[in-house]
Amino acid sequence: MKIIVTGSLGNISQPLTVTLVAQGHQVTVISSDAKKQTAIEALGAAAAIGSIADVGFLTNTFRGADAVYAMIPLSFTEQDLGAYMHRMAQNYAEALKEAGTNRIVVMSGWVADLVKDENVEHVFDNLDASITIMRPGSFYTNFYQSIDLIKGRGFIGKFLTLRYSGLWALLTGKTGLLMGNYGGEDRIVFVSPKDIADAVAEELLLQPQEKTIRYVGSEEMTCNEAAKIIGTAIGKPWLKWVLLSDKEMLQGLKMAKVPEKLAETLVEMQAAMHSGKALENFHQSKPKMGKVKLSDFAKEFAATYHQK
Description:
alpha/beta; NAD(P)-bd_dom; NAD(P)-bd_dom_sf; Ergot_Alk_Oxidoreductase
């Protein structure tokens, strides 16, 4: 099959590309960074250098493809995250329709249907194609964004580096605390990007007749249990994840100079996780859990943590 992978060499797209190439597919990876071309080609894939903001580029790249994996990279420089997400989704939908792509796998988030400004899944509803929406849990790799703060070097502005559908948290390394308006004993589904990539690879080869939604997770636990696993791996077994109110979180984001509308969206995302509704939806879908456990990832995290 001829498969297009968006997301450059990101946490999901790189292992996805490796898997698809190993299966014998003709893979093209879209990246906005020309410096990534050599690395992409080293994986056995072709590189298409351009922006997902360019509908003409997307259309030409998608033309003739059997399947497309579409993801929208988050931008925390946008004043209105929801408007940005909808623009990029519309670009995809227009290009996919023009190119006549028959199989599309779209990356979303496990709280997407609960957060108005984040949900762009409906943009793809009118395409005459087989569509699967991926809703992964909270990425293990989001913990990497918090290393400096765990060590006590950073400050609240570092919140801007934290990633979508993950650990939007404030950390104080001196006290060994994780903070957010979800946390504590809230139960969360965490997921390895490798398990997500494996799930996407499976979906790209399927052809469901109706739009489907697939939740993806690796392990379910409370936020404090996750904090202990990460903390133990780095020699801070007392690490806790403190639950803030929505008001406290919003105030913290505003202090960090996060645009007001973006701050409100981020708080809404976390509140949806704290409510338990996202977990309820996950359980209703009865997905098969992935193979990579948080304790496995914690070893990789600790190695990176101690190198910094």
